[in-house]
Design goal:
This protein is of the alpha/beta class and about 500 residues long. It has two domains: about 240 residues, Aldehyde Dehydrogenase, Chain A, domain 1, CATH 3.40.605.10; about 180 residues, Aldehyde Dehydrogenase, Chain A, domain 2, CATH 3.40.309. The chain has 15 helices and 19 strands. The structure holds 2-aminohexanedioic acid (UN1). The site of 2-aminohexanedioic acid has 11 residues, from loops.
Length: about 500
Amino acid sequence: MNSIIYQNLGMAETHKNYIDGLWQDAATGATFKDINPARNADVIGNFPESGVEDVDDAVRAARHAFKKWSRRPAPERGDILRRIGDLLTERKSELAFQMTREMGKPFFETKGDVQEAIDTAYYAGTETRRLFGRTVPSEMPNKFNMSLRRPIGVCGVITAWNFPVAVPTWKMFPALACGNTIVFKPSEMAPHSGALLVQIMADAGVPPGVLNLVQGSANAGRALVEHPDVNLVSFTGSTVTGSKIGETCGRMHKRLSLEMGGKNPMIVLADADLDLVIDGLVWGAFGTTGQRCTATSRLIVHEDVHDELVENLRQRAVALKLGYGNDDDTEMGPVINQAAMDKIQSYMDIAKDEGAEILTGGKPASGEGLDDGFFFEPTILTGVTPEMRVAKEEIFGPVLSVLSISSYEEAVQVANNIEFGLSSSLYTSDVTTAFKAMHDIEAGITYINGPTIGAEAHMPFGGVKGTGNGHREGGWEVFDFYSETKTVYVDYSGQLQKAQIDNVDD
Ligand code: UN1
């Protein structure tokens, strides 16, 4: 990593949209500034503040490209996906460095983010040889029934900044594998990572128009969702925005996948291996500075082990090395921006008002290397009860709420007492309890003896309740989302056969 030298020359580069194979400015020429959350003086660049006109150009390009791209043999599309995987592998360190610079998580984490994209590329590439339909017996003689997959059309991809490469690829690679074309709007907090990913995809041979990049904020996102020629929307972000997108897509009959908030519980029972728990907790709660939708944000711990666990955790939390993620020894980076700092700080007041205790943290971190960035101390809230806001609302920062329980049944009840249902975890040495929990916990993902983070690219990913709308990313299920089922009947009997009539005697 140290071999990569970055110098801010004080002249912020101006970046462009990528439409129909050409890098171009927003129609209005407006831009927004992107800064390093750990070193605020480091300006990463200015990016186009796109509007309706830019989105319209991008959608037109994607619609035009769809004709050819959708007709290419799927394994040929797979070849390009595998080449993307190769290029991501080649440029892994370079890309991870820029991602860390832009969104803050440590370099070892952004390398993991890129690796998730690499895994997704090879997985999707291979799936292009396995986009199965079915053949099914007909109820009539000399008739052949089958289902096959068709691409859907133009996909609007809107993503968050915390996994600025992996999450867009969860959406774009299966979309491309199935023969769709894309207009991609990355988060305005991670436009550079988005642009670098698009460049890699273009370099790997994704043809002009098949993938288009439109930078910008809510306006650009709204224009994309509302565009009548966008057939499908895939969104990762806040529940408030997701609900609005859901209303529009419902009204306009668009296919929609939503990945939204989480308030993910880790249940620790009295028979758990506490050393294992501690490692999992530090990683689950403070990895990515708690800014994962899968982050462990509630510790639901048996009263018999509560005090020991919490004290051990406190010691580990205060020892975490905060800093710029591209410095070698950094364990936890900054939060993304001032608004995130303010939001987290406001939850400290809410916690105190509601009677919780701030065991450690609870304020911005200061000291050498921390004063020109958005650093917040790893925070543990104890004495939290299930009805408190800090037990129910997503804070999206390095804040863990600790709730004490006295039985498995109570733990499950507390774990389920939220509007979200993304990830969850249970630490126990009892296999019977573990298998019960797999069914009892209301979440799309349950880890046994592991923290709530760490999803693998080839496994379905998504949540229940307020977290999602029933779809899954990743794994084999995502290919169903990005393709339409066509049912085909071939009658070779040479005569008219009437289903449900000719073949049933009353
Ligand atoms: C997210 O936070 O939006 O399971 C995605 C994990 C990662 C993906 C997180 N592989 O934590």
